[in-house]
Design brief:
α6 crosses α8. The protein has four domains: 146 residues, no CATH class; 76 residues, Winged helix-like DNA-binding domain superfamily/Winged helix DNA-binding domain (Arc Repressor Mutant, subunit A, Orthogonal Bundle), CATH 1.10.10; 92 residues, Arc Repressor Mutant, subunit A; 35 residues, no CATH class. 40% of the residues lie in helices and 11% in strands. By secondary structure, the protein is an alpha+beta fold.
């Protein structure tokens, strides 16, 4: 039956048609063909579905997209169920990032079968059943089939379970702790704790200790790598500040710098990587932190080579700044010095100390002991 130039379908049939288009695009891509639908001779039958490249549609015409209103409608409708999933990368399907069908291609494949509103409702239905997911690839929305093994992890989860999952999902690799999640979900803490256990058992989320707040655990998606502000970066091992590793790294760096006339930060970074001093990849910023501690301790000197500065560079022009080198300190700061050990520098009542006062340098036992030393 054709109504208004298109075949009439019920809601279930429209959802099935959308799912078939997504699967067809994946099959075409798996066969080495482009997933972009084209219009060929006789490719659009009574149902108005476009043929995919690699089929009998050999005279593919120029690809057509739906107007901006169509895209906006689908995005708004999908956002109601997906909870903003279009703004993230793949989180449910866990695919290679190349599966699925773009919004414009899907609209063209379904042209003549359903209106924009009906297509949006069908997409929402598939999202609610967790049969597809929606994400962004470039500037386009992409709809992809959820893998069976991933769909099994979500099977049987309640609406509250999925709400907590989506809130955690949107937090990214910075994670979210219980109090903040309670404010966003309006769920009681006992229920949230129970949901945490359910999602952790299915390996959908994981808990990570925050190095700055040891008594606080944050939750994030199971496959995400925690951000450096959570783990502390390379300077922490199992949530503990690794001073031994830092000391070894400092000593090796100062030996390398002192063995050369002068070196750049890039050369020090290359030395650290080639010497396998660290089991994790250290960024240049982290190597700079180590080098700066050596500068502050007076063990190496920081030198700006101004011989290449013609005086014409702007103050804000970072690319024109003279290069920085590091070399062995000409005047090394001694580890112990009478000037650094003078008790007056740390005396809590130094402001009350005067020659004729109750507290005075003549009768100070700490100053007397330091002078004798």
């Amino acid at each position: 039956m054709v109504v208004g130039g298109r075949r009439a379908m019920d809601a279930r049939g429209r959802a099935r048609a959308v799912l078939e288009c997504i699967e067809r695009a994946d099959r075409a891509r798996g066969n080495g063909a482009s997933a972009t639908p084209t219009r060929g001779n006789g490719a659009s039958g009574a149902d108005g579905v476009d043929a995919l490249p690699g089929t009998s549609a050999s005279g593919g015409g120029k690809r057509r997209r739906r107007d901006a209103e169509a895209g906006t409608a689908i995005e708004e409708e999908a956002g109601g169920v997906g909870g903003g999933a279009a703004k993230r990368r793949r989180g449910v399907g866990g695919d290679d990032g190349e599966s699925g069908v773009r919004e414009g291609d899907l609209a063209e494949m379904l042209e003549g079968q359903m209106t924009v509103q009906e297509r949006a409702e069908a997409i929402n239905e598939l999202l609610s059943q967790r049969k597809i997911e929606i994400f962004k690839r470039g500037d386009s929305l992409v709809f992809a089939r959820v893998r069976e093994e991933q769909a099994a992890k979500f099977k049987g989860l309640s609406t509250e379970d999925m709400l907590v999952y989506q809130i955690i999902q949107h937090a990214g690799n910075t994670g979210m702790w219980t109090k903040e999640l309670k404010q966003r979900s309006n769920l009681p803490v006992p229920q949230i704790t129970k949901i945490f256990k359910t999602l952790e058992a299915r390996k959908l989320i994981k808990s990570v200790k925050h190095v700055a707040q040891q008594n606080r655990k944050v939750y994030m998606l199971y496959d995400l790598e925690p951000s450096r502000e959570i783990t502390g970066g390379a300077w922490y091992t199992e949530d503990k500040y690794d001073s031994e590793f830092i000391n070894v790294l400092r000593e090796q760096c100062v030996k390398f710098i002192c063995s050369k006339d002068r070196v750049t930060l890039e050369e020090v970074s290359d030395f650290v990587r080639s010497s396998k001093l660290s089991h994790v990849e250290l960024a240049s910023e982290e190597v700079l932190q180590i080098v700066n501690t050596l500068v502050y301790d007076g063990r190496i000197d920081e030198i700006e080579d101004e011989s290449q500065d013609d005086g014409m560079a702007s103050v804000t022009d970072n690319d024109s700044k003279p290069p920085t080198y590091y070399s062995k300190a000409l005047l090394a700061i001694p580890e112990h010095s009478p000037f650094t050990d003078v008790p007056c520098g740390v005396c809590p009542v130094i402001n009350e100390c005067r020659p004729d006062g109750l507290i005075n340098p003549t009768s100070c036992e700490y100053l007397t002991a330091w002078l004798e030393f």
